[in-house]
Design goal:
Blueprint lengths: L4 H19 L6 H10 L4 H29 L3 H17 L6 H12 L6 H25 L5 H24 L5 H27 L5 H33 L1 H5 L3 H25 L19 H17 L8 H31 L14
Main location: membrane
Keywords: Cell membrane, Membrane, Transmembrane, Transmembrane helix
Membrane topology: Multi-pass membrane protein
């Protein structure tokens, strides 16, 4: 079992909220703890947005609760009607994320009895807001998220696994069921990578020079994800058409295998190039004299189809399915070249920037 940073932050935020409520001598500090649970967020920027939404949501909840308590008293039916109105208003103003805490505020205020109702209502509202601000401070100071490190680490790990399975698939050395299960897991991990990219994109830079660097990095990471998607689609095609691939003429099958080995190695080296760990003289390896250009691949493909038709081998040589595989290979190659261009541009203009630390364990 692995405890992530958000789990630890939630516990610390609850303790800090209860401590502040006790320090300020607020009655019912439990409401501050409850507010901290709802307010903790996976990123600093989302915590900032949450504070704004929670302030608006709790003001709506507190206002409705006070009005209903003054007009209808503290009857349980009045609490339910107030809750319905608060829900409707929150949906109207698109504050659904703060709905739960707003309803907690309604119940917390309307359950207060006595002549000092307004004062107790204000104190309860303040207690809830203490919990919200406590969660924001914890998220800001305690284990601040480093989504760039986590994003690159996940992309690198995911791509390593895709490359490993692709090399097995093109050699038809992988077991069908195992590859199918691996594809499901890889797709799930791809979704996690896209979520991390969203978190990293939301992070704000407060210095102009860092904003430009961040903008270039976002373009590179978006292309990294796109290229990984193309490699995953290629693996999917190799898995779907493994029978057709096995029936290809030996020479053509070896050509596909060799080309994929080039591209997969190219992808590995691009990730190393981004971190500055690849020697400059190796960065242009794709221009090797033995590396076939795309038009040469298509010419060989056309000649092979013509030869197969002459020999009446259409039953064993499926040009239709092979076209799917070749289109994925060419698409993958184009994305790799675009990624290479972006990385070279980034290293040219921001070569002195600190490299991504792959060894970092603390996100």
């Amino acid at each position: 079992m692995k405890l992530g940073a958000r789990v630890l932050k939630t516990g610390v935020a609850i303790v800090f909220a209860l401590f502040l409520a006790d320090l300020l001598n607020l009655p019912s500090p439990v409401f501050a703890g409850i507010a901290a649970i709802f307010a903790i967020q996976p990123s600093i920027y989302r915590s900032y947005l949450t504070i704004l939404e929670q302030i608006q949501g709790n003001l709506i909840g507190a206002t409705i609760a006070v009005l209903f308590a003054l007009i209808f008293g503290h009857h349980i039916v009045a609490v339910g009607i107030a809750a319905i109105i608060v829900i409707a208003l929150m949906i109207k103003f698109k504050l659904e994320k703060s709905l739960s805490l707003a309803l907690v505020t309604v119940v917390a205020i309307m359950e207060v009895q006595g002549d000092d109702f307004l004062m107790f209502g204000l104190i309860r509202f303040s207690t809830v807001m203490v919990g919200v601000f406590a969660a924001f401070l914890v998220n800001l100071v305690f284990i601040p998220p480093r989504y760039e490190v986590k994003l690159f680490t996940n992309i690198n790990s995911l791509q390593d696994d895709i490359i490993r399975w692709t090399r097995l698939a093109v050699r038809q050395a992988s077991e069908h069921t195992s590859t199918k299960m691996a594809l499901k897991k890889l797709k799930s991990r791809m979704y996690e990578v896209e979520s991390l990219y969203g978190f990293y994109e939301e992070e704000r830079s407060y210095f102009r020079n860092l904003k430009y660097v961040k903008a270039r990095k976002l373009v590179i990471y978006r292309q990294m994800i796109m290229t990984s998607k193309r490699s995953l689609e290629l693996l999917q095609r190799l898995h779907q058409h493994e029978n057709e691939l096995s029936n290809l003429p030996e020479q053509f099958r070896l050509m596909i295998q060799e080309r994929l080995d080039f591209l997969l190695t190219y992808h590995e080296q691009l990730l190393l190039k981004y971190t500055g760990k690849l020697k400059p003289e190796l960065s242009q390896w794709s221009q090797h004299e033995e590396y076939l250009q795309r038009n040469e691949v298509m010419e060989i493909f056309i000649k092979q189809i013509a030869l197969a038709q002459e020999l009446e081998e259409e039953e064993t040589f499926s040009s239709y399915h092979l076209l799917y595989i070749l289109s994925r290979i060419l698409d993958y190659e184009e994305n790799l070249e675009h990624l290479d261009t972006l990385i070279v541009s980034y290293r040219t203009y921001h070569g002195k920037e600190k490299n991504v630390d792959l060894e970092s364990k603390f996100y």
